[in-house]
Amino acid sequence: MKFLVLCLIALIHQSASQSPQASCQFENSIDYTCVLTLTNPNGLNNITEIEVNHMPNRTNDDVVIVRTSIFSTSRNIPSIICDTFRNLRSIDMFRTGLTKIDEDSVSNCKLLELMTVRFNQIADIHPNAFAENAELRTVQLDANNLTSVPENLFENNKKLVEINLSQNGLAVLPKKLLSGLSELRGLFLTHNQISEIYEDTFADATNITSLGLGNNSLTYLPDKIFSSLYNLLDVYLQNNQLMKFNPYWFQNAKSLRALYLSNNGITYFPEDSFVNFYKLRELMLDRNPIQKLPGKIFASLGELTWLDLENCQLVYLDPSLFLSTYNLWMLKLANNDIYELPGGVFGSLKYLATLDMTNNQLQAISSTSFYFHPDLRTVRFGQNQINAVDEKFLDVVNVTQLNMEQNVCADGFWNDDSETKELFRTELRVCFENYIEPPQYCPIGNEYERICELEAQTASLTLENAGIRRDLEGLAARIEQLERLISSSP
């Protein structure tokens, strides 16, 4: 008998310990916040009340934010939350153990604007989960276990500004998922398994400015897939399996400022690839097997500041390649097979601050590749085959950090911010001694052709007054100065 009583007590205690419970600690910030401790490991929806102890002169109607505490656990979102706090604008259930969102989970939160359920295990969402949340602006569903989402999930959420479905297992984006979402600004679908997107998927979402499609399995995109996205600013397509770049994709996105195409399988970019990208500031083409780029491919990119061409199997740089990218300050060309730098190839990059050419096939460095770069402070030539350096190189750049590791004539990484650059001159002495002035090559049609010709005529004149060169601004001033040098020579 005593044994039966003990068992009964144990069962009652176990049942009580498994009963779902909810309680709030309140934060009296600008927005009255309930920090909810939710104990509901079985995902039951039978919680009848939330234990509250309000601050003075506060009621349930004053609560506008519910945020679960780090001690909370629940497989679902109990409807008691919205039944209790009818004026909620934000629900945040980060790392709570959620596995689903039911039809009635947030249906009574009519004023809900922000729904954050990141880093859970949600695998199922009812098609009408957000049907009653007409004020919803932001939905953060990233880092869950979704393999699909209902096509009409956001049908009644016309005010949505941001949707984040990154880090799930989505394979296909429903064709009408974004129907009617004309206010949408940010759509983030990175780190999924998306292999196909329908051509008119974005037809209604005309105001998207930031689009994240990186780290998926895309091999092909329809010609007009982004044709309705006139307001695009940032596009992330890195780490996919795209085999070609189509200039028609972004022909209407004339305000584009960042394009990430890193680590795809693109072998060729047509010369008109970026013809309308007048406002582009960041372009990431690294880790594509490009090998060669057309000379005028960047002709429209006068606002470009960051260009990444690392790991592209590039062998040759056209002398006109960077002619129009005069605002570029970061140029990354590491891990290619570039064997020479043509005369004037970096000539127009007057704001260039960092040049990385690590691990190429360079054998010599000539000052004529650079002309004049007062802002070029960091240069990385490590892991090449350099056996000769033009000493005038140090006169036309203002480098303070120079990497020449694992080269033939020098092996080191040095910092020298002095005006004389004595450290660099000492360490590169052998490189200077090995340098032989090559025949001058002046590329036809290049804006720097006249400068190149004048420099050829004054080859016997050394750049003794580097300070004069540092004061020259613009091509006209430079040509005028060189002509003066010619006329004054014996």
Task: Describe the structure using short key phrases.
490 residues, alpha/beta, Leucine-rich repeat, LRR (right-handed beta-alpha superhelix), 19-stranded mixed sheet
What does this structure look like?
- There is one protein chain.
- This protein is of the alpha/beta class and 490 residues long.
- Among the domains are: 293-452, Ribonuclease Inhibitor (Leucine-rich repeat, LRR (right-handed beta-alpha superhelix), Alpha-Beta Horseshoe), CATH 3.80.10.10; 453-488, no CATH class.
- It is 14% helix and 16% strand.
- It is built from eight helices and 23 strands.
- The chain has helices spanning 2-18, 80-84, 393-396, 422-427, 429-434, 449-457, 466-471, 474-488; strands at 21-28, 32-40, 65-68, 73-74, 90-92, 100-101, 114-116, 124-125, 138-140, 162-164, 186-188, 210-212, 234-236, 258-260, 282-284, 306-308, 330-332, 354-356, 364-365, 378-380, 388-389, 401-403, 413-415.
- It has a 19-stranded mixed sheet that branches.
- Strand 1 and strand 2 form a beta hairpin.
- Helix 6 packs parallel to helix 8.
- It is elongated and about 90 Å long.
- It starts with a helix and ends with a helix.
- 39% of the residues are buried.
